[in-house]
Specification:
This protein is of the alpha/beta class and 295 residues long. The chain has 9 helices and 10 strands. Helix 7 (241-249) links the parallel strand 9 and strand 10. Helix 2 (59-72) crosses helix 9 (278-294) and helix 4 packs parallel to helix 5 (170-178). The longest helix is centred in the C-terminal third of the chain and has 17 residues, at 278-294.
């Protein structure tokens, strides 16, 4: 026998003259169930994907520091670690030992995110052991992502930053189909081998079937300046490749971030560098202000 929820959901109003299962969700004839599940993402203002064409360009580090910068600017911020095979946000925010609680609302189970430095955080890293190898096929990975997306009980957020895996695969397509992304920020390093993969990322979001605004490109690891030679810049990974590409295709260039030791140390210690290094915070604040202005 169907339970009350199923009966409520399937009941057809007396005035309805057609099969509502074939019409849109906003059909005026549909009767809304009083048991309809909460949508946690309804508590989120803007959803921004932080992406990269390839791994190793510092995307996750940029995500963590950008989140803390927005929080320092007075916004309520959450981070969803969607890098299923290589989660790192739980470490970058120093909450590796967090064990998520489950709560029930209207008969549905939801996951309580961690909170670190006033930032709400959800990651697959909370559910696996540090040495576990995630030998998951695409369907299992996307299923896990959907659960994190739809069952995390976010508080009232102004921004949710999603740390996406590198590339343009299953996870990205699932994300695009499951939620509305308000924009994508692409992270690259200056060298041409990295910029070549940025092209694929930009074109994916610009595709007519995707149509997600590309808010801009960040050039990470743009140069290195040793403390003892503050006037010198060493372009270890080349110079200006991401900036040049952004100008070429008409995508906003959000800014460049140099190689700074405190950024590495902050990622390792669970304290994003913008919280302790005013110079790093300045670079990220300029980028964050451009992102906010574009939305």
């Amino acid at each position: 026998m169907a339970n009350e929820k199923e009966m409520q959901a399937n009941e057809t109003p007396a005035e309805c003259t057609h099969n509502c299962s074939t019409c849109s969700a906003n059909c005026g004839s549909k009767k809304q169930s009083m048991f309809e599940a909460i949508n946690p993402l309804s508590m989120v203002g803007k959803v921004i994907g932080i992406v990269s064409g390839k791994g190793g360009v510092g995307k996750s580090t940029v995500t963590a520091n950008l989140a803390l910068t927005l929080s320092n600017m007075g916004y309520r911020v959450g981070v969803l670690d969607a890098d299923i095979y290589g989660p790192s946000q739980h470490k970058m925010f120093g909450v590796e030992d967090y064990l998520p609680d489950a709560v029930q609302e209207d008969g549905q189970d939801y996951i309580v995110p961690a909170v670190s430095m006033d930032i709400e955080l959800m990651s697959i890293g909370f559910f696996i052991q540090p040495n576990d190898a995630l030998m998951w096929r695409g369907a299992m990975a996307t299923s896990a992502l959907k659960q994190l997306l739809h069952q995390t009980m976010w508080g009232g957020l102004d921004f949710l930053l999603i740390d996406m895996p590198p590339g343009t695969g299953d996870i990205h397509l699932t994300m695009i189909s499951e939620i509305k992304l308000d924009g994508a920020v692409i992270v690259s390093t200056p060298q041409q081998i990295a910029v070549a993969d940025v092209v694929r990322g930009v074109e994916m979001f610009r595709h007519e079937q995707v149509n997600v605004p590309v808010l801009g490109i960040i050039e990470n690891m743009a140069w290195f300046t040793p403390k003892e030679l503050p006037d010198n810049k060493y372009y270890i990974f080349g110079k200006g490749g991401a900036r040049a590409y952004a100008e070429e295709v008409g995508v906003p260039f959000l800014g460049d971030i140099p190689i700074v030791q405190s950024i590495m140390e902050g990622s390792e210690s669970g304290q994003p560098s913008v919280g302790v290094d005013a110079e790093v915070e300045r670079y990220y604040r300029e980028i964050a202000q451009k992102i906010v202005a574009s939305l």
